[in-house]
Structures are given as structure tokens and as C-alpha cells.
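anyone seen this seq b4? input:
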Amino acid sequence: MYICIGSAMQELNLPVFDARVRQAGNGKNEIFDEIRKKYVRLTPEEWVRQHFLNYMIRQLGYPASLIVVEAAITYNGLKKRFDILAYLADGNPCLVVECKAPRVEITQAVFDQVAMYNMTLTVDNLVVTNGLVHYACQIDHQQKKYTFLEEIPGYELLTQKTLNRKS
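predicted toks r here
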């Protein structure tokens, strides 16, 4: 169990890391986001997001400089915010991640949400996680179908796939 200044955060099915947590002036807990380079309010969803970012960078090899967190996109004239988007070195997006709090069940509605974001982003790889359960799938945009993956793809694998497609 993680103790965060008087409140407990749930243990996740992700590698443990040394999260920088502090209590803000308003009495709310905050966690440092190394991508956004600032402390953000510590919610159960943010706890998952920060663990998943750590996993992407430390275990899967995604360069922190090629990751964007909570950025806005426009879909059908509406502003939406995705959780995590990773890019390849050539500037093309390669992976979008939707994070939910551990108590949120991963349902079709969650997949629909990330699929809606992907209508604008057109990324080939999607991940949905609540920190306990993770689903990854690869999208074939030409054939309009998806395949669930057994593992979350690492950065090197996605880079290699892109290079193979271009040759």
C-alpha cells in the first residue's frame, strides 16, 4: 500500500516507482509529472497515469521527450483531452493511452472513448488501462479492423515496424 500524506493510494499492476508526492497549500495531495514538469492534483486516475508513464519510459523505452500528456484535440467541433500520446522520432504519433481510475471497469464505452480520439489522431496502437488491467490493440486503418495484443508494444518495436513499412 502506498501512503500519501494521510491518504492511501491503491497498489497497481504496474512497476513501483519513487513518486514525488506533496501536500499543496489547499490540503490536497499532488504528484510530480515529469512530462509536464509540474505537480498536478493526485487523483486515482492521475495515480494510474503517472505509473503508466513511468512504465512507458523506464520499461518500454519511450523517450520522455516524445510523450505528450493531457493535450486537447478537436473531434466533431468538440474539444476533447486524451491522456497520453507517444510519438516516433519522425514526429508521427504511434501510441495513444487512455487511463482510468482503478475502480473504473474497462468497458466498451472506454474503448469507444479512445477510438473517438483516434478518429482525429489516427494512431496505429491503442492502450486502455485502469492500472490493474491493461488492454492493447493494433489498428489496421485500411482494413478497418483491430487486433488485441498480448503485450503493450515497446518503443523499439513500433520504431522497427514503421521502418519496415517504409522500406
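The mean pLDDT is 89. Residues 44-58 form the longest helix (15 residues). kinda curious what u guys think
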